Automatic annotation (TrEMBL):
InterPro entries: DUF6594. Pfam families: DUF6594 (PF20237). Residues 15-258 form the DUF6594 domain. The keyword Transmembrane helix applies. Keywords: Membrane, Transmembrane, Transmembrane helix. The keyword Chloroplast does not apply. This is DUF6594 domain-containing protein. It comes from the Eukaryota. It comes from Bionectria ochroleuca. The chain crosses the membrane at residues 198-216, 222-242.
Length: 292
């Protein structure tokens, strides 16, 4: 925590303590994007430009001097100049609004786990008015915090829940020194992250080596093909669920080649998927030659 305060509870009840809680955990920065209001304003700005466009076309069609339409330097039509100036102002404002709306719509949805935690804290403390925390019940909440790898986030949440439920020492560790409330768990230590990464590496290793071990116990090519297909499908299902991959990314994950531009975020999963299919295919096709 910043300032002279070390825990959330050292701040006064109300907004001081609530904002201290939000600042202690970045994913707690959730808010409403007000998509309906943005759509309303967008339609109004769009319609205003549409009206101006029709006015300009009408002025051009009624222009008595063709020279003014062919050479703007000689244009003396004040009505056209006025409409063009208004169009420029409205277009500039319209473009800025489009850019702002695009940035807001690009924000990631808030994680239900974080929203649920904030609701529990607000309901448990009762230090804020219900009307001013009603936004937590909205269905259109977005997160201002950068979203990490989806697989890692889900796995860390699962590991943290297990620690809270079964590991008593986890509640009293130094990584939970941001709050004195026994019902509040704001982890700031590396234990959860390291455990999650270890489990993830174990899962990847298991998916990579298990089919190789199973295939080495049989001489039937058909059984090996079935094993390869089964584990490849399982791998792609895990990638699609945990990483929310797009169709093309899943195709790349099951192929033997991946472009260097994909080495971000899902790079580990995609690269291993490529190596996965390659290793299994080479193993199945090469084993009969080795045994012979």
């Amino acid at each position: 925590m910043c300032d002279t305060h070390e825990t959330v509870e050292e701040y006064r009840e109300g907004y001081p303590r609530y904002t201290a809680l939000l600042s202690a955990h970045k994913p707690f920065f959730v808010c409403r994007p007000f998509n309906k209001l943005r759509a309303r304003l967008l339609l109004l700005k769009q319609d205003r430009l549409d009206v101006l466009e029709k006015q300009l076309e009408e002025i051009d069609n009624q222009e008595p001097a063709p020279l003014f339409l062919g050479k703007s330097r000689f244009d003396r039509n004040e009505a056209r100049k006025k409409v063009l100036s208004e169009i420029e102002v409205c277009l500039e404002e319209y473009d800025r609004y489009l850019e702002r709306t695009n940035r807001v719509l690009s924000l990631c949805p808030a994680q239900e786990r974080d929203v649920h935690s904030l609701r529990n804290w607000v309901n448990g403390t009762g230090s804020l008015a219900r009307e001013e925390t009603a936004y937590l019940s909205s269905r259109e909440l977005v997160s201002l915090a950068p979203l990490g790898d989806n697989a890692t986030v889900k796995l860390e949440a699962w590991v943290e829940n297990l620690f809270i439920k079964f590991y008593r020492g986890f509640r009293t560790s130094k990584s939970h020194d941001l709050s004195n409330d026994p019902n509040v768990f704001i982890d700031s230590g590396p234990l959860v992250q390291r455990t999650s990464r270890a489990l993830l590496l174990f899962l990847i290793t298991l998916l990579l080596l298990m089919p190789v071990v199973i295939c080495s116990t049989t001489d039937s090519n058909w059984i090996r093909i079935v094993i390869v297909l089964t584990f490849t499908v399982c791998y792609l299902l895990i990638v699609s669920v945990l990483t929310q991959s797009r169709t093309m990314e899943l195709i790349l994950a099951g192929s033997t080649y991946v472009d260097s531009s994909y080495y971000s975020g899902k790079a580990i999963w995609l690269t291993l998927g490529c190596r996965y299919a390659t290793v299994l295919t080479v193993f199945v096709s090469g084993t009969p030659q080795i045994t012979s």
